[in-house]
Amino acid sequence: MIKIEKRDDAPMALYFFTPFIAIILTILGGGIIFYILGFNPIEALKFYFITPISNLYGLSELLLKATPLCLIAIGLSFCFKSNNWNIGAEGQLTFGAIVGGGVALLFYNQEGFYILPLVILAGAIGGMIFALIPAILKTYFNTNEILVSLMLVYVSKLLLDYLVVGPWSNPEGFNFPETRQFSDSSRMPLLFEGLRIHAGIFLALAAVMLSWFTLYKTYLGFQIKVSGLSLKTAKYAGFKGKTMILFVFMISGACAGLAGVGEITGPIGQLHRMISPDYGFTAIIVAFLGRLNPFGIIFASLVVALTYLGAETAQIFLQIPKYTGQVFQGMILFFLLASDYLLFFKVKILNLKKNELRH
Amino acid sequence: MSLDISFIGILIGSIMASSVPLILAASGELITERSGVLNLGVEGMMIIGAISGFALMVITDNLFIAIVGSMLSGVIISLIFGFLTQSLLTNHVATGLALTIFGIGLSAMLGKNFVGIPGKEFPILFSSLKESIPFFGPILFGHSIVLYFAFALPFLTNYFLKKTKLGLVVRAVGDSPVSASNQGINVILVRYCCILYGGAMCGLAGAYLSLIYTPQWIENMTAGRGWIALALVVFATWSPIKVLIGALIFGGITILQLHMQAIGFRIPVQFLSALPYLMTIIVLVVISRDSRKIKLNTPTSLGRIFYKEK
Predict the structure, then answer these.
(1) Nearest-angstrom CA–CA distance, A89 and B77
(2) Cβ B230–A147 below 8 Å, yes or no?
(3) Residues A272 and A97: beta-carbon distance below 8 Å
């Protein structure tokens, strides 16, 4: 007989163990989907999860994709920990890339050591400003931040589209929807010859360390966590709720803006329509899978980056559409949320003896 | 291009057609939200409805099966959301997002072999009247049955919520699940039903796109309409009749944008495309400022997890 009991307190070990259960279930689920689609599941999964990272170039690509995911998820962890549902990171990434890219375009024919820091700073500020819109509307007009941040994603993408087609399009570009190439001084330095991995990864690592310090070692981090657990307690303790909402959104927007700038100054080198394969949305999965913990997020960003990479590899070798990546990403989140059930409830298998049943 | 009266009639007719998927999806989501459940998976359910409707049409060559099948597929995919949020008590926002990401991916996989296949002509009703009556002809006649259903749906939804006992049950569950539960209402069951109904309507909205509005399968063809539908529910402050009005406004902007392009209007098309999103934000600000206004219809327990100790 199975009995389900509510838990008072979930063991910490289980809290960090369930993500692994979710990943294993996702791989199994993926195998089943491949089987249904008529592929050899073992072979397909091998192309998906092993082939992409079996050489140096693949590993560099993995880190390249994990960098923006990790950065954005770190920012989102501030919002989610304090119960602010910023789901518009994709928009903040795009707007950050627009502002940063605009600065890079100003210096398109110049070189100088000061250019890249300016571009990066502009990107972070751009993302921050864009995230402030839902934050200000939430604090002063009581507006739902989920919907506002989401609507702004589309607004920013349309703005980018307008700019690369219209005023910022490359004058020598034969009307392609793209801007000029940035000058070398606006590009992230590459870490290794022949690989695309760039210095942006240090931004992500710095964000991890800074967020760990802020969340776990400062009074501010304590305030953020308390208001996430109970808004009433936070009010009772006299925390400044409004300032904090603005703060977590600014952090989150700045991180997303940095991720956007990292993409355009790193692998892309100009602005065009497709600067992000929905990193801003996928980073929400990363934040959850990493349990909103900075080091958990590093791990989660590598796992989710592999779903992007695996989807590309599987498309090349097996002609499986690259959208399988999204199927895997959705499944990870489904299984993760489902396995959270184990955190709140104890499933007990009772071993009843025969005579007990009779009574 | 002349702006004569018959042209305006045709214009209104095309605005109505473009607002149908918004009305269907938003009306479905409205019932779901009224029961206290926030499902952000609208876009995912719509796109699944679009591909299953189109695929079934190609395979069975039967439009009726295609339409019913698209609704069923919406029900099946929303069952994932229902099971997670209601039985496993997961967070509504995260689960809904997962549903959208999953749905877009799955639809592209399922639709791989259906890209480029031409659609079938969907039968329209009263096509002779459409031509013979100026102005009113193209507005009232010559549409598919799904359009007529969509325009009746907000009124039916309004009647259901306000005048029927079941509607009262749905509202009670959304406003105060604890007291509803104490009255002997099975809160979880009611919410399951509302989620599945929302799934069916989103599936139908998707099928309208792939079978009637632009009869073909294109990857990601819902193109953000699911998110607009979600915004529309808030825009309408959870009132079915206002959903209809809002859908016509948003549909109107889409059509206007096409015509302005055609006559060479000098506003960049991207700004017009951004209008529905910006308008939703403005309306959100206006209604949210006055908390009494929004509270009138807002389901009090929206997005909150209900758990009954057994």
Answers:
(1) 26
(2) yes
(3) no
Please state the domain extents for chain A.
1-35+323-359, 66-305
**Fold that domain B5-295 belongs to in CATH:** ABC transporter involved in vitamin B12 uptake, BtuC (1.10.3470)
Which range among A92-96, B48-52, B86-90, B141-145 shows the weakest confidence by mean pLDDT?
A: B141-145
The ipTM of this complex is: 0.87
Residues with Cβ < 8 Å from A316, sequence gap 6 or more? none
Rounded CA-CA distance A167/B45 in Å is 37
Tokens representing residue B105 in the block: 């991916």
CA distance A117 to chain B (A): 31
- Determine the residue among B102, B295, B310 to mutate to test chain A binding: the one whose Cβ has the most chain A Cβ atoms within 10 Å: B102
Question: Which pLDDT tens digit goes with each residue over A232-273?
Answer: 777 777 777 788 899 999 999 999 999 999 999 999 999 999
Closest in A148, A288, A331 to B94, CB measured: A288
* Six token digits for residue A37: 């689609």
CB B76 within 8 A of CB B68: no
| β-pair partners for A6 | A345
Closest CA to B14 of B147, B104, B186, B160: B147
Pick from A152, A320, A344: CB nearest B89: A344
Confidence at residue B133, expressed as pLDDT on a 0 to 100 scale = 73
A–B CB contacts, 8 A cutoff, strictly below:
135
- Average pLDDT value for chain A: 89
CB A63 within 8 A of CB A71: no
DSSP string, A239-293: --HHHHHHHHHHHHHHHHHHHHHHHIIIII-S-BS-S-SSHHHHHHHHHHHTTT-
Q: Determine, for residues B268 and A285 on separate chains, whether the beta-carbon distance falls below 8 Å.
A: no
Q: Which pTM value belongs to this model?
A: 0.89
State the virtual CA torsion across A59, A62, A68, A74 in degrees, nearest 10. Answer: -90
CB contact under 8 A, B109 and A324: yes
Interface test with B, best of A80, A140, A147, A339 (most B CBs within 10 A): A147
